Here is the input.
Amino acid sequence: MAFGIKRKEMSDWKAKVAKGEVAFLTHFWTDPRFPASHAVTKAGCADLSKLIEWGETFGLKKEWIHHNKDYPHFDLMGAVQLKVLEAHNLIEHIERFRLR
Here is the structure.
């Protein structure tokens, strides 16, 4: 279950993904399979080759891509989530969702 984001944030992320940009969306999230995580970052891009290449720079495997309709993405949690957000200077995501 996702919460803590505005509809505009979601639509902006979808638009960037659809254009072939690597885009990021962080939101609060709960899933009993991952009790240590309270937020997830979706790193998406409609250009699968670009998404795969981007993911490889962070040690992500193409098999981990969620092929969600027009918005393929990786779900990032924990240490890799922080590493990616810091690498892309998305400090606001880290602070807003209390990831440190």
